[in-house]
Specification:
Length: about 475
C-alpha cells in the first residue's frame, strides 16, 4: 500500500471523502434514530425512563471517553487500519443490537457501537486533511459536516417509519449496508498516511480521564445500579474525586498534556467551551424528552414522532452555514448569544406546552419550540466554534479541537441526564401522581424550565466573551 505525504493531493481523495462521510452519517443517523424511538423501546423492554436513557447515554459516554485516546492510537497502528476496523466493528455491533430483546445486551451493543464510532470519528477529519490539498480542505470538511446534519435530519423520519413497519430492532440493521459500503470504499481508497512525527500516548492521563468521567456519569445516572447501591455509590464518588484530582494535577505538570487546563483562563476559550456544553445540553434535553411527550401525551406513532423531530435538524441545516458566513462579518459573540437565547426560548415554549390541555395553542407551541430550538443551535455552533479556535494559539489548535469535541459530547450527556435521571427523580419525588399522565406532564414542564435556566446561563457565557478577540 502506497504512502501519502500530507502536503500532496491524493488522486482518490473524493472517494476518501465518501468513506469519511459515510462514517459521519453512521454515527449521527443511528443516534438520532434511537433518540426518536426510545419510548417504543422503553415499552417493549419493560424498563423505566431513567433506565432507557442508558441506551443513548452509553453511546455518548464511550464515544466521549475514547475519542482522544483513539486519535493517539491511530498514530501507532495507522489511521487506515483503525478506520477499516471501525466500519467492521460498527456492523457487528449493529447485529448485536438488532437481534436482542434484552436490555443489558442492548446497552452492551450500544457501547460496542460507540467504540467503533470513536475509531471512525477520531480518524475521519485527519484523513481528509492529509489527502486533500490545502485549498480544498475547507470544502471537504464542510461536506463532512453536512453529513452530520443529514444524519440528524433523516434519522427521526426513517427510524420512525421503520419502527412502525418492522419494529424497533430493524433500525439497527439499516446501518449494516452503510458500514459495509464505507468499509469497501475505504479499503479501495484510503492510503497509508506518512507519519509526520512520533506521538506518545500518555497512559496515566488517559486512564484517569476515562475513570473520572465514567464515575461521574454513573453517579448522575445511577438508576442503572440496582443492587448494593449503598456501597457502589460512595465508591464511585471516591473514585471520581481521586481520579479527577490526579488527572488535573498531571495535566498541570506535563509539557504536552491531554487537556491544556491553563488554556481555559483565556476568556473566549473558557466561556466559549462552557457555552458549547450548555448549548448541547439544551438541545439534548429537548431531543431526549420530546419523543416521550409525543408518544405518551399526544399518542403519536413512531412515524409521526419522527416527522416532528426532523424539524430541528432541518432548521439547523439551513441556519448553520448562514451563521458561519455571517460570523465573518458581525463577529461570533452576537450570533452565539442570539442562538443561546433562542434555545432558552424554545425550551420555555415546551415547558408551557406541557401543562396545557389539548388545544391548537399546544400544537403551535410544539411547532414554535422545535423551530426556535433548531434555529438556536444552528446559529450558535459555527460562530462559537470559530471563537474558541481563534482564542487558542496556533500550536495548540489540535488540542483545542479535541477539547471542543469532548465538550460537545459532555453537553449531550448532561442533557440526557437532565432529561432522563432528573426527570425520573422529579416524577417520583415531586409530582402528586407519578404514574398519571398529569404527573408526567408536570415533570416534563419542570425539566424544560430547568433547561431554560441553563440556556439563559449559556447566553451570559457568550456575552462574557470578548468581541474584539472574535473578529481578529
Amino acid at each position: 500500500m502506497m504512502e501519502v505525504d500530507a502536503t500532496v493531493a491524493y488522486s482518490k481523495r473524493w472517494i476518501v471523502l465518501w468513506s469519511v462521510g459515510i462514517a459521519t452519517l453512521l454515527s449521527t443517523l443511528n443516534n438520532s434514530i434511537v433518540n426518536t424511538i426510545l419510548p417504543i423501546m422503553e415499552h417493549d423492554l419493560h424498563i423505566r425512563l431513567g433506565q432507557s436513557e442508558w441506551i443513548v447515554l452509553m453511546y455518548l459516554l464511550v464515544l466521549s471517553l475514547l475519542l482522544l485516546p483513539m486519535g493517539r492510537l491511530s498514530d501507532f497502528i495507522g489511521r487506515r487500519r483503525l478506520f477499516l476496523v471501525g466500519f467492521l466493528l460498527f456492523a457487528i455491533a449493529a447485529v448485536v443490537c438488532g437481534i436482542t430483546d434484552d436490555y443489558g445486551v442492548l446497552v452492551f451493543g450500544r457501547g460496542l457501537m460507540a467504540v467503533a464510532g470513536s475509531m471512525l470519528l477520531s480518524v475521519g477529519p485527519a484523513l481528509l486533511t492529509t489527502t486533500f490539498p490545502r485549498n480544498q480542505r475547507g470544502k471537504a470538511l464542510g461536506l463532512q459536516a453536512l453529513m452530520t446534519y443529514l444524519g440528524l435530519a433523516l434519522g427521526p423520519v426513517v427510524g420512525g417509519a421503520l419502527t412502525d413497519w418492522l419494529g424497533w430492532n430493524s433500525v439497527f440493521y439499516l446501518t449494516i449496508p452503510f458500514a459495509l459500503a464505507g468499509f469497501l470504499l475505504a479499503l479501495w481508497s484510503v492510503p497509508q498516511i506518512q507519519k509526520s512525527g512520533t506521538a506518545r500516548l500518555d497512559v496515566a492521563s488517559t486512564a484517569t480521564f476515562i475513570l473520572s468521567l465514567a464515575a461521574l456519569v454513573l453517579l448522575l445516572n445511577s438508576s442503572v445500579i440496582t443492587s448494593m447501591r449503598g456501597l457502589v455509590l460512595p465508591a464511585l464518588a471516591v473514585l471520581f474525586c481521586l481520579t479527577a484530582f490526579l488527572f488535573i494535577r498531571r495535566q498541570l505538570n506535563l509539557q504536552n498534556p491531554l487537556v491544556d487546563l491553563p488554556l481555559f483562563r483565556v476568556r473566549n476559550f473558557g466561556f466559549g467551551t462552557l457555552g458549547a456544553i450548555l448549548n448541547y445540553l439544551c438541545f439534548f434535553v429537548a431531543l431526549f424528552l420530546l419523543p416521550f411527550y409525543l408518544t405518551r401525551v399526544l399518542h403519536d406513532s413512531a412515524g409521526i414522532t419522527g416527522l416532528w423531530m426532523t424539524l430541528m435538524p432541518l432548521v439547523m441545516m439551513i441556519s448553520a452555514p448562514l451563521a458561519g458566513a455571517w460570523s465573518d462579518r458581525v463577529g461570533s459573540r452576537i450570533l452565539s448569544s442570539v442562538g443561546m437565547a433562542a434555545n432558552a426560548l424554545g425550551l420555555a415554549a415546551f415547558a408551557v406546552m406541557a401543562v396545557l390541555g389539548p388545544s391548537v395553542v399546544r400544537t403551535s407551541l410544539l411547532l414554535t419550540g422545535l423551530l426556535v430550538t433548531g434555529l438556536g443551535t444552528g446559529l450558535f455552533a459555527a460562530p462559537n466554534n470559530a471563537a474558541i479556535l481563534k482564542a487558542a494559539p496556533q500550536s495548540k489548535q489540535g488540542m483545542a479541537s479535541g477539547t471542543l469535541a469532548t465538550a460537545r459530547y459532555v453537553g449531550m450527556m448532561a442533557g440526557i441526564t437532565i432529561g432522563g435521571s432528573l426527570m425520573d427523580y422529579i416524577l417520583v419525588r415531586f409530582t402528586a401522581q407519578p404514574s398519571s399522565l398529569s404527573g408526567f406532564e408536570e415533570a416534563v414542564a419542570a425539566v424544560m424550565w430547568i433547561g431554560t435556566a441553563f440556556g439563559i446561563l449559556g447566553m451570559f457565557c457568550t456575552l462574557a466573551m470578548q468581541k474584539h478577540r472574535l473578529e481578529t
